[in-house]
Specification:
With about 90 residues, the protein is mainly alpha-helical. The chain is built from 3 helices and 2 strands; from the N terminus they run ααββα. A two-stranded antiparallel sheet has the order 1-2.
Length: about 90
C-alpha cells in the first residue's frame, strides 16, 4: 500500500501502472470504469497534469485492522467484466 501512496503522491503514472495487472480494472470517483493498465495510466497522467482538483493532490492512508463477529460474505465492490461504462443504477452491478 505504501508504494501505491508514494506513486500517487509523486504523480508517477508509470510506477503507479506497474502496481497493476495488465488487465486491471479501476473505477474512479466519478464512476467512470477503466479497463487495462494503459487506460488507467493514461487517465491518471491526464488528471495529475491538468485537473485543478488533482494536480497538487496528496493521498494519505492509515493502516487499520478489522474484526468480524460472524461469517464473512463475499460482495462485489466493482462492476463485473463486460459492464458498460456510463451511469448505471446500483442494482445493475449485482
Amino acid at each position: 500500500m505504501s508504494d501505491f501512496v508514494d506513486d500517487v503522491n509523486r504523480h508517477d503514472k508509470t510506477a503507479f501502472g506497474q502496481l497493476l495487472a495488465e488487465d486491471a480494472e479501476f473505477v474512479v470517483i466519478t464512476g467512470q470504469y477503466l479497463r487495462g493498465r494503459s487506460e488507467i495510466e493514461k487517465y491518471h497522467a491526464e488528471i495529475w497534469t491538468t485537473s485543478s482538483n488533482f494536480k497538487d493532490s496528496r493521498l494519505t492512508w492509515t493502516p487499520m485492522t478489522s474484526a468480524f463477529s460472524g461469517p464473512m460474505l463475499p460482495w462485489r465492490t466493482s462492476p463485473p467484466r463486460g459492464y458498460t461504462t456510463g451511469p448505471k443504477k446500483r442494482e445493475q452491478w449485482s
